């Protein structure tokens, strides 16, 4: 699935979702470990043409984003705002309450995309599957009411998506998962595409590890680009919605300059072959147990 060139705000390519909406293929990621800078977000919106912001309740910066968006002067209707539901808020009533609270912190009346952050729930007396189904029913209701224009999941494996298919009505519009040259879960990507679930990739620079890899440095020299631009272009060219993080204005500017060149087929294949299933994002509690 290739990104549709053009069609987005400020010329950023978009990918169509199953519900008819379109998501910008490049966004700005935020996080909770030194991953937020007010000035960087304002710069991204005002100077770089970024219109896609990815955050989460867990990151603790939704209220800060409200201030940055307001200062940027960018209209709400021109933005794509994604946030995520943390596992402590899973469950039918809790999910609806948490969504309203995220909207209040962000200063918005609706979310463009709301994601279940992790598949594991840890609710005493209930299986993870039961809690996911209950939570997703609330997500479906939020979607039907228009509070969430699109709904999806994050870090879900095929087994989780299959269970959701059996338990619920609406197929997730998006699955956001770690994706970079060392971690390319192609079977999951293919599964999502077979069900019209757009695949969104976080951590595209492998927490900086990709920037110092000799092969990626060599490709950067070949194209007259930076290693970061090679990684982001590779991800987007593979049809992945890509959300690099940065707190530095110059890095964000660099990360956005990826739409005026293409990687050759042999170089795409070379980068694809670098996959070693090296996952970099883990939580302190056991992941993906059921």
What does this protein structure show overall?
The protein is of the alpha/beta class. The chain is built from ten helices and ten strands. It has helices at residues 38-47, 62-72, 92-106, 128-144, 158-167, 186-194, 214-223, 227-237, 249-256, 265-272, and strands spanning 14-16, 22-24, 28-29, 52-54, 80-85, 113-116, 151-154, 174-178, 198-202, 241-243. The strands form two sheets. Strands 3-4-5-6-7-8-9-10 form an eight-stranded parallel sheet. The protein has a two-stranded antiparallel ribbon with strand order 1-2. Helix 6 links the parallel strand 8 and strand 9. Helix 4 packs across helix 5 and helix 7 packs across helix 8 (227-237). The chain is globular, with a radius of gyration of 18 Å.
Can you tag this structure with a few keywords?
290 residues, alpha/beta, 8-stranded parallel beta sheet, two-stranded antiparallel sheet, 10 helices, 38% helix, globular, disordered C terminus
In summary, what is this structure?
This protein is about 40% helix and about 15% strand. The chain is of the alpha/beta class and about 290 residues long. Strands 3-4-5-6-7-8-9-10 form an 8-stranded parallel sheet.
Oligomer: single chain
Cα separation of the termini: 29 Å
Structural class label: alpha/beta
> With helices defined by DSSP (H or I, 4 residues minimum), what is the helix count?
10
| SSE arrangement, N to C | EEEHEHEHEHEHEHEHHEHH
| Lateral arrangement of strands in the main beta sheet | 3-4-5-6-7-8-9-10
Structure summary, number of beta strands: 10
Main beta sheet: strand number and arrangement?
8 strands, parallel
- Determine the mean pLDDT: 92
State Rg.
Answer: 18 Å
Gross morphology: globular
Query: Strand content of the residues, in percent?
Result: 5-15%
Uncertain segments of ≥5 residues (pLDDT<50)?
Answer: 4-9, 281-290
Helical amount: 25-40%
């Amino acid at each position: 699935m290739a990104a549709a060139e053009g069609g987005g705000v400020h010329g950023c390519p978009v990918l169509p979702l199953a519900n008819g909406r379109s998501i910008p293929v490049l966004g700005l990621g935020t996080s909770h470990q030194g991953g937020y800078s007010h000035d960087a977000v304002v710069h991204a919106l005002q100077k770089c043409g970024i219109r896609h912001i990815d955050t989460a309740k867990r990151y603790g910066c939704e209220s800060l984003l409200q201030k940055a968006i307001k200062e940027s002067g960018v209209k709400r209707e021109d933005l794509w705002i994604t946030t995520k539901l943390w596992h402590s808020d899973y469950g039918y009533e809790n999910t609806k309450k948490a969504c309203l609270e995220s909207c209040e912190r962000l200063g918005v009346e609706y979310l463009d995309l709301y994601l279940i952050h992790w598949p594991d729930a840890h609710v005493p007396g209930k299986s993870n599957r039961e809690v996911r189904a209950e939570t997703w029913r609330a997500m479906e209701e939020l979607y039907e009411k228009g509070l969430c224009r699109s709904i999806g999941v994050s870090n879900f494996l095929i087994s989780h998506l299959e269970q959701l298919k059996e338990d619920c009505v609406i197929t997730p519009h998006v699955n956001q998962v770690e994706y970079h040259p060392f971690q390319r879960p192609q079977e999951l990507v293919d599964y999502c595409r077979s069900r019209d679930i757009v695949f969104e990739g976080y951590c595209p620079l492998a927490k900086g590890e990709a920037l110092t890899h000799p092969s990626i440095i060599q490709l950067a020299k070949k194209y007259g680009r930076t290693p970061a631009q090679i990684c982001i272009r590779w991800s987007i060219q593979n049809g992945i919605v890509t959300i690099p993080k940065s707190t530095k204005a110059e890095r964000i500017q660099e990360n956005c300059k990826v739409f005026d060149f293409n990687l050759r087929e042999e170089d795409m294949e070379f980068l694809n072959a670098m996959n070693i299933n090296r996952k970099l994002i883990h939580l302190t509690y056991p992941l993906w147990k059921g």
